[in-house]
Amino acid sequence: MPVPSAALDVADRDARARARAAGVEIRKLTPDEAPDACSLLADVWDSDPRHGPMEASLLIALLHCDNYVSGAFDHGRMVGVCVGFFAAPIGTGMHSHIAGVIRQYAGRGVGTALKLHQRAWALHRGVTSISWTYDPLVARNAFFNLHLLGARVTQYVPDFYGEMSDGINDGQATDRLVVHWAIVSSTLNTAASVPLDAREFVVLEMDQAREPVLASGPPPDGFTRCRVAIPDDIALFRTRDRGVAARWRLAAREALVALLADRWVVTDFDRSGYYRLERN
Which segments constitute the N-acetyltransferase domain (predicted)? Predict the structure, then answer.
């Protein structure tokens, strides 16, 4: 569908500004660069380079069909990759499958720059909504997706990918939240979240031993807001005590699946480690 020219201008401007602020150039990859992109993603996912999360042949096929396969470069060095493909609804939808930035560039805004480049690229092709999945226990991704970008949670899928053997997902269920990002009028939200208060029912909390503690039941009638805690660094939990990490997986799954089924809507993620929800 046609996208207003004003929206295209804003998206292009924002993408250029974010890339400039991150100190990178973002552009479409060439087929010859596909192996390097796969090696970068394998390193980010702590995988055997021969069995990383993407294959060069698949990237080349996606490029050939004019899907989104782009890289971020610092003076010619590839430091980030983002891959997406057209999806339902046909003509206006895109699914962003994977994005990664090398560790040395974490925290420099390269991921945000890639996402805004993807938004501008998609808008120029009539796409108005981009979907993707992420691990609901990874707090930094929850904040980026829900607070900064303003993406909307539409589904919780237990064990979305099944068993995976990379260094991030090995030995645990691959639960994912599905989010959709309406990109025509989206803006980055740099404001702080609304402060937590006692009128929010606490469905899942962390105790002093950093274990998950579920409420004995759903939010009672009369509560219109609630919150669900997750660890501030689940990767550290997985390294130190996989049992605790697994218990957090099951507790967050139980809480969020039940709330979404009961028509609660995720409205934000607070930096203090809480999903914020309101009754629909």
Answer: 24-169
Report how far residue 112's alpha carbon sits from residue 256's, in angstroms, rounded to the nearest whole number.
Answer: 26
Distance CA 200, CA 17 (A): 38
User: Which CATH code for domain 5-182?
Assistant: 3.40.630.30
Alpha-carbon span 238 to 256, nearest angstrom: 21
Identify each DSSP E strand in 63-199 by its residue range: 68-74, 77-87, 93-101, 129-134, 152-157, 176-182
- pLDDT at position 108 over 70: yes
pTM: 0.94
**Is the distance from CB of 10 to CB of 4 less than 8 angstroms?**
no
Quote the CA–CA distance of 201 and 274 in Å, as a whole number. 12
Task: Give, to the nearest 10 degrees, the angle between helix 34-44 and helix 56-64.
Answer: 130
**Domain residue spans in the chain?**
5-182, 200-279
Rg for the chain, CA atoms, rounded: 19
Write the single-letter amino acid at 120: A
| Banded model confidence at residue 1, pLDDT cuts 50, 70, 90 | low
What pLDDT digit, counting tens, does each position of 37-52 carry?
999 999 999 888 788 8
Say how many CA atoms lie within 13 Å of 194 toward its Cβ: 13
CB atoms within 10 A of CB 171: 11
pLDDT at 171: 73
Say which residue the tokens 């629909």 belong to: 280
Which residue has 């206006």 as its token pair? Answer: 92
Region 250-258: mean pLDDT is 98
Share in percent of the chain as helix, strand, coil (round to 5): 35, 30, 35
